[in-house]
Amino acid sequence: MTRILGCDPGLNGGLALVAINGAAPQLIDASDIPIVGSGAKTRVDVLAIHAWIETHKPDHAVIERAGVMPRQGIASGFKYGRAVGALEAVIALGGIPLTVLEPAVWKRRLGLYGTNKETSRQRALQLFPAAHALLARRKDHGRAEAALIALALNGSAP
């Protein structure tokens, strides 16, 4: 069984641990990206992420390639980049192999097109019906996308 950590980066992103064992993949756990601070001082809580990762001991990690959105402000783009860098650093310091996937690649592998976050959450609910409690809220789209990113590694998506 391979345990893959999926990361939807950003302050509103998510983490997910997916187990792939040849049969149907299983969503073991999912979490919102933990943050500390407020307002302009909001940042990723790297110690909480490290603890979450250490609890689950993934074999590999996959993160969506970071990029600023058109018309995104300088400050928000910088905050997003810091969040991505913090995630990558925690993963690297944990000695976990990391793959970076383009958004278009993982979405294509899962039959998703466009930017609708709710569509991603619904697709994750289809693929992981036993994990409904982890993805029940509309705002759980970051967790759902993290699970889908993990599943898309090496084309392992159904």
Layout of secondary structure:
Layout: E1 2-8, E2 14-20, E3 26-32, E4 35-36, E5 43-44, H1 46-56, E6 60-64, H2 74-93, E7 98-101, H3 103-109, H4 117-127, H5 141-151
Parallel strand pairs: 1-6, 6-7
Antiparallel strand pairs: 1-2, 2-3, 4-5
Helix pairs in contact: 1-2, 4-5
Strand content: 15-25%
Number of helices: 5
CATH C-level class is Alpha Beta
Q: Report the strand count.
A: 7
Low-confidence stretches are: none
Describe this structure in words.
There is one protein chain. This protein has 158 residues and is an alpha/beta fold. It has one domain (2-155): Ribonuclease H-like superfamily/Ribonuclease H (Nucleotidyltransferase, domain 5, 2-Layer Sandwich), CATH 3.30.420.10. 38% of the residues lie in helices and 22% in strands. The protein has 5 helices and 7 strands; from the N terminus they run E-E-E-E-E-H-E-H-E-H-H-H. The chain has helices at 46-56, 74-93, 103-109, 117-127, 141-151; strands at 2-8, 14-20, 26-32, 35-36, 43-44, 60-64, 98-101. The strands form 2 sheets. The protein has a 5-stranded mixed β-sheet with strand order 3-2-1-6-7. Strand 2 (14-20) and strand 3 form a beta hairpin. Helix 1 (46-56) runs parallel beside helix 2 and helix 4 (117-127) packs across helix 5 (141-151). It is globular and about 45 Å long. The protein starts with a strand and ends in a 7-residue tail after the last helix.
